[in-house]
Amino acid sequence: MAITDGWRQRRTRRYLLHALEIVERRALFSDTVDWPTVRAEAVAACAGAVSYTGIHDTVWTVVKQAGGAHSGLRRPGPASAWGTGTLPSGKSSTVSPGSVCPPAANAVADTATPATS
Fold first, then answer.
1. Residue 117 resides in a domain
2. 117 residues of the chain, pLDDT tens digit each
3. Which residues pair with 89 in a beta bridge?
4. Which domain holds residue 102?
5. What is the DSSP letter of 93?
6. Does the pTM of the predicted model rise above 0.70?
7. How far apart are alpha carbons 74 and 106 in whole angstroms?
């Protein structure tokens, strides 16, 4: 079975929705966000994305909106680690109360330096 762009888009959309779900549950200022609108705008902005890295700017924007200065997004590690199809995880860490870690960063989430932007 060949991997198509349609399959990649569906996988990326699942990743986006899962990341948004984690942010909604764990972000410091989550209760100030209009989640149906934010989710619809994020899905629309990422509609053609075929890779996880293609949606990181959108996820970053949502994380900052819902978490303020206390939140961030770790960028993925080497491209070879993305072939696993692993979804992001939400967990507590020493960096912040709630973190969304892209798949490649999961292995080093507690020892990595937080991303700055």
1. no
2. 577 889 999 999 999 999 999 999 999 999 999 999 999 999 999 999 998 888 999 999 999 999 988 788 887 666 544 455 555 555 555 555 555 655 554 444 344 444 554
3. 101
4. 5-76+84-108
5. -
6. no
7. 10
